[in-house]
Amino acid sequence: MIHDCIGHCTVLAADIGFNLAGLRTGFWQLTIDGLSWGAIYALVAVGYTLVFGVLRLINFAHSEIFMLGMFGAYFALDMILGFTPSGDAYNVGMPLTVLYLAVAMLFAMAVSGSAAVGLELVAYRPLRRRNARPLTFLITAIGMSFVLQEFVHFILPRLLTGYGGSNAQQPIILVVPKTQFTVFGATVSNVTLVIVAAACMLAVLTDLAINRTKFGRGIRAVAQDPTTATLMGVSRERIITTTFLIGGVLAGAAALLYTLKVPQGIIYSGGFLLGIKAFSAAVLGGIGNLRGALLGGLLLGVMENYGQAVFGTQWRDVVAFVLLVLVLLVRPTGILGESLGKARV
Amino acid sequence: MSSRLQQLERPGDVVRDWWGALSREAKWLVGIVGFALMALLPLYPPPLLDTPGISFGGVMAQFGMVALIAVGLNVVVGQAGLLDLGYVGFYAVGAYTVALLTSPDSPWNKLGQTGFFSRDWAWLSCVPIAICATAVAGLILGTPTLRLRGDYLAIVTLGFGEIIRLLADNLQDITNGSRGLNRIAYPRLFQNGKVPDGVFSSGNATGHANYGTWWFWLGMILVAVVLLLVGNLERSRVGRAWVAIREDEDAAEAMGVNTFRFKLWAFVIGAGIGGLSGALYAGQVQYVAPTNFNIINSMLFLCAVVLGGQGNKLGVIFGAFVIVYLPNRLLGVHLFGINVGDLKYLFFGLALVVLMIFRPQGLFPVRQQLLAYGRSARELLG
């Protein structure tokens, strides 16, 4: 019996690798690649964190907002800019590529932003008016997540030929991954550069918007104390709409960056896993905390890459979930704590 | 207060009052007759209810399994108020326990020459093991996570469901990866010349009393047993503690309810019932693969509970019927060139959203009755 057990354990160990040497040799490459993943997680995580800060609601359908953003970006490249999907990459030169990407990103932002605001109006506002329980909100969010996914899965192909359906979109490749320079022996590709640069810019802008502008002050006020904020003349409903808009816009931007990294990932179910990971990132950094979400996103992206190197590629997703559970157990408030409302006044 | 009472006195109460007025013996009689009528359904499928595209017995067997799941999930979500989005994980643990112990593809197979299971009773002996394994899984998941706030719990359980699926997919040497485990044991009963492997084998595929129908009957018996157990729990101290936790956890804690312990109980009992259903599934299909345990199934199960009315045992069984029956009934029906059966997730998603706005308590809401005193208290008040 004991011998049997040992046999089973070795069978188990064979499936879970443990390769520390791989982590040591590939450390910098893994870090840089992880940062580009992390930048995408961070942008999506901001949407979760802001909505949670203001409404105490896990916007489960945010991953679908992200998914719609991917389709928005694809639509912009395909229908507006006239690229056709092909196996080969386009080579239009650096300035034009940046311009096209910017147009696609703006369009993705518009799609995601309006979807997020629409989601708020259709699904959440009626519930707020009825003073629903938190569980009710969460179930609604799950329902909307279904609806949006299945809309793209079955209805969209009827409305717009060649979009949605059971298969991923044929990729349109604007940027071919090409090594630009090396740091500590790790190569940095142009895709990584674009992702990190764009994400940093957006993160700084969002941080400024939340901490320096009038609207940002309103968001923080509502997060801190909705009733008092209303008494002070802050329109709660308008703040909530703005919050959803900011989250949606950032998810749209993340969606375009994601399609640069994974061009074949534009599919109706493509947002789900990324959404959960981004939520994990938000919790990791401290949900409700803007800078926490950014930090958590980067950290999760990097950790996931390390975990993948140590345990094997197929365990990548497991690493993220285990990390989430561990963080919740050790420090439920996350690394930086829950403090959208407690930020400086 | 009075308007609230009136609100609670609405539609279903005609039935409830009638039911409440019956004597104990009459209740049993009505229950048994209803049970028998349900059992006869697949033998004489009513023309409107029949599923043209697919064996009605098979659909009913699926309904039996999902009804079991709904009752189990109802303990967690409906009675204790814990949102569990990874319930499919427990279902998978139950199914894989049976599969690993009896499938010839698995290294842990205990059936055959060297094993200790007899060929005919292997499935049945695996059922208690599956229930225990899932209950332990529930304990392991619940102990750390039930201390968390409710909304975190939802996400952690979601992660758990996904981890179980990934484990089944990745531990290739044990679970056979995405190829799954084949030839799982099933009860070999009533073997005769026509069905050499017994009525529960997939060889028994013709007529109304096919293997689906037999599995449905088995499922119904299990549902009845579980309903009795859960019903008794509901009326006990444990059930009252669950209601208290669901309505206001802080208040319950202040009143001396050990909230963590009772939440853990709900979680473990719910998990065990999920495992039972998983064992049933493994036996019926005789094949398990990771894709059968996608996280979207969790949402579907949740939909059954929410649709039927969280906390109402019979309501959630109706919810289970809806989510199993409708997609199968609509199989092959086309509307604007779209297969309506494909749209099930769209419709269920819409149903969830609309229900939450207009009827968050579900189609058959549970009445906040005075559980502690039951009928005598109601007579006193009435």
Order of helices and strands of chain B: HHHHHHHHHHHHHHEEHH
- The count of DSSP E runs of length 2 or more, i.e. the number of strands of chain B, is 2
Order of strands, main sheet of chain B, comes to: 1-2
Rg of chain A (C-alpha, Å): 21 Å
Q: What is the 3D form of chain B?
A: globular
Unreliable residue runs of chain B: none
Q: Structural class, judged by helices and strands of chain B?
A: mainly alpha
What number of domains of chain A?
1
CATH class of chain B: Mainly Alpha
Mean pLDDT of chain B: 81
Helix content of chain A: over 70%
Which CATH architecture of chain B? Orthogonal Bundle
Distance between the termini of chain B: 15 Å
Q: Helix count of chain A? A: 13
Question: How much is the radius of gyration of chain B in Å?
Answer: 21 Å
Question: Which features does this protein show?
Answer:
heterodimer; A: 345 residues; mainly alpha; two-stranded antiparallel sheet; 13 helices; B: 382 residues; ABC transporter involved in vitamin B12 uptake, BtuC; two-stranded antiparallel ribbon; 16 helices; globular
Please tell me about this protein's structure.
The complex is a heterodimer of chains A (about 350) and B (about 375). With about 350 residues, chain A is mainly alpha-helical. Chain A has helices spanning about 1-15, 20-25, 25-55, 60-80, 95-130, 135-160, 190-210, 215-225, 225-230, 235-260, 270-285, 290-310, 315-330, and strands at about 180-185, 185-190. Chain A has a two-stranded antiparallel sheet. Chain B has one domain (about 55-380): ABC transporter involved in vitamin B12 uptake, BtuC (Orthogonal Bundle), CATH 1.10.3470. Chain B is built from 16 helices and two strands. Chain B has helices at about 1-10, 15-20, 25-40, 55-80, 85-100, 120-145, 150-170, 170-175, 210-235, 235-245, 250-255, 260-285, 295-310, 315-330, 345-360, 375-380, and strands at about 335, 340. In chain B, strand 1 and strand 2 (about 340) form a beta hairpin. In chain B, helix 5 (about 85-100) packs parallel to helix 7, helix 6 runs antiparallel to helix 12 and helix 9 (about 210-235) packs across helix 10 (about 235-245). The model of chain B has no long low-confidence stretch (mean pLDDT about 80). At the A-B interface, helix 1, helix 5, helix 6, helix 11 and helix 13 of A face helix 7, helix 8, helix 13 and helix 15 of B.
